[in-house]
Amino acid sequence: MKQLHRHLYLVAVFIVFLPFWPLLSFLKKNSNKHYSTFVRIRKWIALTASSFVGFRYKIKWEEEVDWSQNYIICANHTSNLDITALIKVCKNDFSFIGKDELLNNPVTGLFFRTIDIPVNRSSKMSSFRAFKRAEKYLLEDKSIVIFPEGGIGDEYPPVLDPFKNGVFRLATELKIPILPVIIKDAWELFWDDGSKKGSQAGSIHIQVLKPVDGEALNLHVDDLRDRVYDLFQKNLSSN
C-alpha cells in the first residue's frame, strides 16, 4: 500500500504540473523576467499535489519572519517532501540549490533549467558556478534555499550529517542572515525518494527558527556553521 501511495503522489505531481507545462515552456525563454511567476506556479503545483494524497505541512514559527528581506534558508534533508515543506515556508521569491540529477526529472528539471541552481557536488567548477549564481540572486534580493548536509544520507532512521562550509561562507561574505528551518518527520512519511519504503499520508511538522545574523554576532564562517548546526541538533532531539 505504501508503494501504491508513492505512485499516486508521483502521478498527482505530474497531473497538476501538466496544464502549466505549455505556459512555463513559453516563459522559460525569459525566466529572469518571469521569475516570480515561476515561484508562484511551483508553489501551487507542490501544495496541490501534496493535498491530493494527504500530506499536510504544519509550521511553528519561533518569531515572525521579516519577509521584506532575503535570507539563506537552511534545512535538514531526509525526504523529497522537504522541498514542498520549504515551498510552504517561504513567502518571498527564492531559488533552490540542488543536485544536478534533478535536471533529469520532467517537473523539477524545468525549474532547475530556469530559476533553480543545479550543482554537481563532485565537481569544484560546478560548485563554484552554482555559488556565483546564488550570489547573483542574493544581490538581487532573492532568497536561496539549500540543504547544508549536501544531500540525503543513507542512514535509516536519518541522522544529521555535518554541514558543508560553502553556504556559510556565502552568508558571511554577503552579510545575509541564515534562516534555519527544522523539518522533523518528513522521513517517516516519505524517506528519500520513497523508492525503498514507499509513502503514507500524514502531517509534516516544521519549525522555523529566528534568523541567525552572523555579522551581528561577529561570527566567522566556521563559527556560524557550528552555531547553526548546534541549533539543528538541539531542535531535532527535542519533541
Please give a structural write-up.
The two termini are 29 Å apart. It contains nine helices and seven strands, in the order H-H-H-E-E-H-E-H-E-H-E-H-E-H-E-H. It is globular and about 50 Å long. By secondary structure, it is of the alpha/beta class. The longest helix has 18 residues, at 35-52. The model has no long low-confidence stretch (mean pLDDT 96). It has a single domain (2-237), classed as Glycerol-3-phosphate (1)-acyltransferase (3-Layer(aba) Sandwich).
In short:
By secondary structure, this protein is an alpha/beta fold. 42% of the residues lie in helices and 15% in strands. Helix 6 (124-139) runs parallel beside helix 7 (166-174) and helix 7 (166-174) packs across helix 9 (221-237).
CATH architect. name: 3-Layer(aba) Sandwich
How much of the polypeptide forms β-strand, as a percent range? 15-25%
CATH class: Alpha Beta
Q: Tally the helices.
A: 9
Number of strands: 7
What would the average pLDDT be, to the nearest integer? 96
Strand ordering within the main sheet: 1-7-6-2-5-3-4
- Terminal CA distance: 29 Å
